[in-house]
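Input set for joint prediction.
Command: fold jointly, output tokens.
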Amino acid sequence: MHNIFAGLSQGIIYSLVALSLVIIWQSTHVLNFAQGAMAMIATYIGMTEIDRGVGYWWCVIISVMVGMALGGVTERVLIRPLYGKPEINPIVVMVGFLGFLEALAAAIWTSTTRNIAEPFSQIYFKSNGHLVFLSSFVIFQIVLAIVIMLSVAALFRFTKLGLQLRASALAPEVSRLLGVRVSRMLTIGWILSAGVGAIAAVIIASGNFGLFPTNMDGIFVASFIAAAVGGLESPLGAVAGGLIIGLGEQFILAYWSPDVAPLGGIIILVIALMIRPQGLFTKTTIRRV
Amino acid sequence: MIRVEGLSVNYGAVRALRDVSFDAPSGQITAVLGANGAGKTTLLRTISGLVSPQSGAIFLDDFSLLGVATEKIARRGVGHVPEGRGVIQELTVEQNLRLGALASKVNLAEGLEQQYARFPILGDRRKRYCSTLSGGERQMLAMARALIANPEVLLLDEPSLGLAPQVTSQLMRTIRQLCDSQNLTVILVEQNAKSALRIAHQALVLHLGSVAAIGDAASVAADEDLKRYYLGVVVT
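tokens >
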């Protein structure tokens, strides 16, 4: 039983990062492989303010703003020159950017893990003397994930901005002919995605996991799998996918061996791709990359 | 109205348009005819700002369109239904129409009602995803999407492509009605020269990027010599 809660609390982290991937996919049809690293940098910049006595929540706001700015600048400087060229280019550039950012973080802040004081209690609740792996902090994360999921869904389904974002990714030239400011939409997509990514990274750094340059690597991989399993177009899918991967890893950890745990995510991905490659929650047809 | 002066467009070493000049007056349909590769689509894409010309000028009334971003040209009232229609498959009929209305100041609800009244089939299918529409339905949607913004100019790139003859006739009648009732400036690129010439006021024949002929539609239709330019074969 406690495995389930442990899986859920880990999974919700993947859900949050997966949501940022849904945003960027829906708005730009580019997958940002440096998402985790960018969010990590934003967290460093925001959270080191805590050393100077700035309050936790202000630091969160700073991190999110820095994350968003970084997202916008990255799109303009690194991605903009690549439009109209092979689709693999942005992926390669972002992987390189990822390495660069991690090296940069290590150079500036060293690789020592920082532990940031958590905003809510991380003490797990007990039920009948057994540990239930739910704490106030985890509950906060779950609520946050739900709020973000609903906001993202509402954005793309009901708002003018959401429609323009989707159209800019699906059919940029046609959208321009309809008067949509496509370049602006693409930048906005990167900004929003980076903002959500930064929120996720701040939470990860505030937990027992800590903040260090490569802390987002494993999480990004699992989140990417979560988004792929749930369907890159579905916020609900991202959350569901995250929880599935989290639970999957937990069960492998409990019943098999800790070394094999990362394999859990990959096994789930392979099964999902075999059964329903377009994702569990999508309506659309398969897209070949 | 649209005025094109001395327009030349190159794609690298290929001269797609050479020194093309013509006026497309308001309230009239200007048919643009020519064989494949004659430069018809390039002409429309250049007017819309998707392609930059090497030289020449393009005016929308008094306003120069050169160097202006495509989305700005669209917002100025130049509607363009591209080759293949450009209906966004992953969205519904209504979402495509909403998108079309975004760039203009029209009231969305009124705009939608107007288009559904004009094209009842779209009204029936409004929540359907566009991947489920037939060719004729997509053509109607593409036109409605351009019209919902109340454009001044309508650029149509081969609207009859892939449509059955009956549907094409109906479509052409609709285009003529719209042009008359809304005083639109219509530039109609067509392979189906016969249908286009029936509704057009004037016609421009392109051959390998140059203007082979320009004149009123009736004269162009009657000119047997010109047929080789847009049929691509010598007619005996």
